[in-house]
């Protein structure tokens, strides 16, 4: 392989600075808001320098950020040598990273605003040892031709390892069949994006974000004036208040739709030979490649709204690969799809799985109280405190018992599992109904447990763990007959 060293595109320096500033955005806003609106510009004042200290610190931090971004771009080089991708950067402390091509699982690509302006791409190198959702190496901004060259060198190295020494690699390359075309399995449309934003928890996240931002600027908000206006509105009529609440919810829904549209725009799932390729994003386009043999489990989730409409979302738990910035290896395969239409593409992608679960082994009737009585550990003290301090209206908190019991009964009716040949399927519910499909060869740990109270009723729980992210992905069948727990453990042992 060539030992020629390559540098990143100069846009890398801008991207590094912008990324660092984004991480410092909240501290910058807090410092500017707390000090910037009350700056004493009279340098002769005794308090001038003490008031300017936070801003001086901010200027120093920003200067260091800009300089470090420039240094990282200037010193960063990569090259190909001895079937490895080698990376080196650093001014005073040189950091080197040598990544054998045979350890590389995926090459993921991302195109942000700056990448698109200059027709560049970010390459993220994923290996089996990548942790915390971070790539093993990252080429922040290179041309698409340079990105293709990394993939070409990787394929050549892996092909060379598989072939006998006497075989001519040039002849093999000439006889090698062209890369198979991608087959589109699923592509989200605009109506599905709107439905996804409506049925997901995005609206709640937006509202929580608004409250979090407001809490940072509480001292600048005229709460007294707002309270007076609200008191006037309440006197005027509850209809006006309800209209304002409805407008706030509509606004939150609009923001949620916008975020969903930006994040999942043109969401496409393709299959290319033995790889799964997922692309999404409007402003920042992301593409992740997942070898099908790295998929450890498949998770089908239905929140109450989606279940009511016959919809579901599907994620795959992968031992390698993922979108940048995501801390686990759960990759959304279908953000929203009709449940009756989901099994055909899943069967095409994973023919070794059986997705038609007709009957499941459910917990016995004697286990029903176990699904909600643990909630009374925190619920009873809460009801007691609220009833005491807010008597008599606090007694209304007793009504919380009803939804807790109903949710427990719902979980009881949902929970179950089935074992068929080399596959285990576990169905569970916290609020959303989750169906977890895993093959026996992918299961890392099978663990049975039994508390003192479960032992008295001869019931137990069983948990399986597959490789995914740092701690792995798991599914638990709770409060089933103890003999069923033993059956699963025996199935796994043999």
From TrEMBL:
InterPro entries in UniProt: UCP026631, YdbS-like_PH
Coiled-coil intervals, chain numbering: none
Residue stretches spanning the membrane: 21-41, 53-80, 193-218, 238-265, 395-412
This protein's UniProt keywords: Membrane, Transmembrane, Transmembrane helix
YdbS-like PH domain segment(s): 73-150, 264-337, 413-492
PANTHER family per record: UPF0699 TRANSMEMBRANE PROTEIN YDBS, UPF0699 TRANSMEMBRANE PROTEIN YDBT
Protein name, UniProt field: Predicted membrane protein
């Amino acid at each position: 392989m060539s030992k020629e060293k390559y540098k990143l595109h100069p846009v890398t320096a801008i991207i590094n600075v912008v990324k660092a500033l984004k991480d410092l955005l909240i501290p910058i806003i807090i410092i500017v808001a707390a000090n910037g609106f009350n700056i004493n510009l009279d340098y002769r004042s005794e308090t001038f320098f003490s008031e300017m200290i936070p801003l001086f610190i901010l200027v120093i931090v920003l200067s260091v950020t800009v300089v470090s971004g420039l240094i990282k771009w200037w010193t960063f080089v990569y090259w190909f040598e001895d079937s490895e991708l080698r990376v080196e950067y650093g001014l005073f402390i040189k950091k080197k990273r040598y990544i054998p091509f045979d350890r590389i699982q995926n090459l993921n690509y991302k195109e942000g605003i700056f990448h698109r302006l200059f027709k560049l791409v970010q390459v993220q190198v994923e290996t089996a040892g990548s942790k915390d959702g971070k790539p093993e190496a990252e080429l922040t901004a290179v041309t698409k031709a340079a990105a293709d060259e990394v993939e070409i060198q990787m394929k050549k190295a892996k092909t060379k390892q598989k072939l006998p020494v006497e075989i001519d690699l040039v002849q093999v390359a000439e006889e090698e069949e062209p890369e198979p075309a991608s087959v589109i399995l699923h592509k989200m449309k605009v109506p599905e994006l709107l439905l996804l934003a409506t049925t997901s928890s995005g609206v709640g996240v937006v509202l929580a974000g608004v409250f979090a931002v407001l809490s940072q600027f509480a001292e600048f908000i005229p709460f007294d004036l707002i309270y007076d206006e609200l008191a006037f509105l309440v006197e005027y009529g509850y209809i006006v208040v309800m209209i304002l609440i409805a407008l706030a919810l509509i606004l939150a829904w609009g923001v949620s739709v916008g975020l969903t549209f930006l994040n999942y725009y043109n969401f496409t799932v393709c299959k290319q030979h033995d790889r799964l390729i997922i692309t999404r994003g409007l402003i920042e386009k992301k593409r992740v490649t997942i070898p099908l043999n790295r998929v450890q489990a498949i998770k089908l989730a239905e929140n109450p709204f989606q279940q009511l409409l016959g919809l579901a979302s599907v994620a795959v738990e992968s031992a390698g690969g993922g979108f940048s910035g995501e801390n686990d290896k759960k990759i959304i395969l279908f953000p929203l799809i009709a449940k009756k239409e989901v099994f055909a593409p899943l069967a095409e992608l994973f023919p070794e799985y059986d997705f038609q679960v007709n009957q499941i082994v459910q917990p016995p009737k004697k286990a029903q109280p176990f699904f909600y009585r643990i909630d009374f550990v925190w619920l009873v003290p809460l009801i007691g405190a609220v009833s005491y301090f807010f008597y008599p209206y606090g007694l209304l908190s007793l009504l919380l018992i009803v939804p807790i019991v109903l949710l427990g009964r719902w979980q009881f009716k949902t929970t179950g599992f089935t074992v068929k040949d080399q596959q285990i399927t576990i169905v569970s519910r916290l609020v959303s109904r989750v169906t977890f499909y895993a093959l026996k060869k992918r299961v890392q740990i099978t663990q049975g447990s039994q508390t003192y109270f479960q032992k008295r009723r001869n019931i137990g729980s069983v948990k399986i763990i597959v490789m995914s992210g740092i701690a792995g992905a798991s599914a638990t069948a709770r409060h089933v007959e103890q003999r069923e727990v033993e059956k699963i453990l025996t199935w796994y042992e043999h």
